[in-house]
Automatic annotation (TrEMBL):
Provenance organism: Anaeromyxobacter diazotrophicus
Residues bound to NADPH: 10-11, 31, 48, 105, 140, 255, 279, 281
Keywords noted in UniProt: Cytoplasm, Lipid biosynthesis, Lipid metabolism, NAD, NADP, Nucleotide-binding, Oxidoreductase, Phospholipid biosynthesis, Phospholipid metabolism
Matching Gene3D superfamilies: N-(1-d-carboxylethyl)-l-norvaline Dehydrogenase, domain 2, NAD(P)-binding Rossmann-like Domain
Superkingdom field: Bacteria
Protein's UniProt name: Glycerol-3-phosphate dehydrogenase [NAD(P)+]
PANTHER family listed in its UniProt record: GLYCEROL-3-PHOSPHATE DEHYDROGENASE, GLYCEROL-3-PHOSPHATE DEHYDROGENASE [NAD(+)] 2, CHLOROPLASTIC
Localization: Cytoplasm
Positions of NAD(+) binding: 7-12, 140, 255
Pfam family, one: NAD_Gly3P_dh_C
Catalytically driven reaction(s): sn-glycerol 3-phosphate + NAD(+) = dihydroxyacetone phosphate + NADH + H(+); sn-glycerol 3-phosphate + NADP(+) = dihydroxyacetone phosphate + NADPH + H(+)
Record-level GO BP terms: carbohydrate metabolic process; glycerol-3-phosphate biosynthetic process; glycerol-3-phosphate catabolic process; glycerophospholipid metabolic process; phospholipid biosynthetic process
Binding site for sn-glycerol 3-phosphate: 105, 136, 138, 191, 244, 254-256
Length: 332
C-alpha cells in the first residue's frame, strides 16, 4: 500500500515510520523543506524526532503532487488549524476511493468545526465516506521507538476504517475502530485543554488530588460537549477520551501539560511556545472549545478557567480559586 503523509512533524513522521516498517512505500510532505531534506538524506527528522533512525524507505518530497502520486492511503498530519489549507491545496490531487486518515486533534478556531466537518467542507462529497480519524493516547516519540500503543480509528464507513486499521496495525501499534467520529474528535481536542489545566495545577505545586479532580471533572465536561454534538457517551471512556486525557494530564512528555506547567510557574505564554518549537494544540483548542461550548450552551468551567489564564491574563491561582468556589452542586 503506497502511503502519503501530509505533515512531517513528530506525529506524521512517527506514523510514517510505522507504515514504512511494514514495507509500505511511504512519502512525507511538508512546507518545511529542511525537515524533508534531513529525512531524505540522513534518515532522521532532525527537528522533530532528533536522534531517531528512520527506515530508509521513508521518502520525502517538497512537491505535494509528487508526494501524492499513486497514493493508496493519505494521512493528514498537520496541526488542526492548518488542515483546511492543506486540504484546499490537496483537493485536486486526491481521488475518491482512496482512504484518508486525519490525525490532528483540534477544533478550527474561526469556524468551530471539528476536523471531519472541515474536511467535509473542503473535499467533494464522493470522498466523504473515505474519511477516517485516528486519535488516542500516543506520544509520537514512543510510537517511533516501537513502544506498545493503542489508538482508535473512527469513520462512518466501517469497511474503510478497517482498511486503515489493517494498514497501521503492527506488533506494537494496535488500532481499534469506532463509528463515533464526533466522540473521538471531541475527546482528542478537549483533552489538550484539560492537560493545560493539569499542567497549571502541577506547576503551581498542587498535588495528586488536584490532578485527579481535574482529570475526572475534565472528562465530565468533555462528555457534555461531545454528547451535545451527538456522540455516544461510551466513546469518552475509551482511548480517545479517558485514555488520552490520563496520558496528557499526567506526563511531562506532553507539550500541552508543559505549557500549563510553565504558566503555573510564572512564565509567559509566548516564551513557553517559542521554547517548545512544536505545536501545543491546547492553546488554540482552548479558544475554540470555549467558544463552541458557549455557542452550544454547554457548561465547561475548567476550559473557561484555562481560557481566562491564556487569553485574559488572569493569574492561575486566582482562576483556580474561582473554579473551586463556584456554587455547590451534585456530581454529574
Ligand atoms: N506529536 C504527538 O505525539 C502527537 C500529535 N498529535 C496531533 O497531530 C497533529 C500534528 O502534530 P505534531 O506532528 O506533533 O506537530 P509538530 O509541531 O511536531 O509538526 C507540525 C508539522 O506540520 C507542518 N505544517 C504546519 N502547517 C503546515 C501547512 N500549512 N502546510 C504544510 N505543513 C504544515 C509543520 O511544518 C510541521 O512539520 C496535532 O494535531 C497533534 O495534536 C496526535 C497524537 C500524537
Ligand atoms: O496527543 C498527544 C498524545 O496522545 C500528544 O500530546 P501533546 O500534544 O500534549 O504532546
Amino acid at each position: 500500500m503506497r502511503c502519503t503523509i501530509l505533515g512531517a512533524g513528530s506525529w506524521g513522521t512517527a506514523l510514517g515510520a510505522t507504515l514504512a516498517s511494514k514495507g509500505f512505500p511511504v512519502c512525507l510532505w511538508d512546507k518545511d523543506a529542511p525537515v524533508l531534506q534531513a529525512i531524505a538524506q540522513k534518515h532522521e527528522n532532525t527537528r522533530y524526532l532528533p536522534g531517531l533512525a528512520l527506515p530508509p524507505s521513508l521518502a520525502a518530497a517538497p512537491d505535494m503532487a509528487r508526494a501524492l502520486e499513486g497514493a493508496e492511503l493519505v494521512v493528514f498530519a498537520v496541526p488542526s488549524q492548518a488542515v483546511r489549507q492543506v486540504a484546499i491545496e490537496g483537493k485536486r490531487l486526491l481521488h475518491a476511493g482512496v482512504p484518508i486518515c486525519s490525525v490532528a486533534k483540534g477544533i478550527e478556531v474561526d469556524t468551530l468545526m471539528t476536523m471531519s466537518e472541515v474536511l467535509e467542507d473542503v473535499l467533494p462529497v464522493p470522498m466523504h465516506p473515505y474519511l477516517t480519524f485516528l486519535s488516542g493516547p500516543s506520544f509520537a516519540k514512543e510510537v517511533a521507538a516501537g513502544l506498545p500503543t493503542a489508538v482508535t480509528i473512527a469513520g462512518r464507513w466501517e469497511r474503510i476504517s478497517k482498511q486503515v486499521q489493517d494498514a497501521f496495525h503492527t506488533r506494537t501499534f494496535r488500532p481499534y475502530t469506532s463509528t463515533d467520529v464526533v466522540g473521538v474528535e471531541v475527546g482528542g481536542c478537549v483533552k489538550n485543554v484539560i492537560a493545560i489545566a493539569a499542567g497549571l495545577s502541577d506547576g503551581m505545586g498542587f498535588g495528586a488530588n488536584a490532578r485527579a479532580a481535574l482529570i475526572t471533572r475534565g472528562l465530565a465536561e468533555i462528555g457534555r460537549l461531545a454528547m451535545r454534538k451527538g456522540a455516544n457517551p461510551m466513546t469518552l471512556s475509551g482511548l480517545s477520551g479517558l485514555g488520552d486525557l490520563v496520558l496528557t494530564c499526567s506526563s511531562e512528555q506532553s507539550r500541552n501539560h508543559t505549557v500549563g506547567f510553565e504558566l503555573g510557574r510564572g512564565k509567559k505564554l509566548e516564551e513557553i511556545q517559542r521554547a517548545l518549537g512544536q505545536v501545543a494544540e491546547g492553546v488554540l483548542n482552548t479558544r475554540s472549545t470555549r467558544d463552541l461550548a458557549r455557542k452550544l450552551k454547554v457548561e465547561m468551567p475548567i476550559s473557561e478557567m484555562v481560557y481566562r489564564v491564556l487569553y485574559e491574563g488572569q493569574a492561575p491561582r486566582q482562576a483556580v480559586g474561582e473554579l473551586m468556589n463556584r456554587e455547590m452542586k451534585p456530581e454529574n
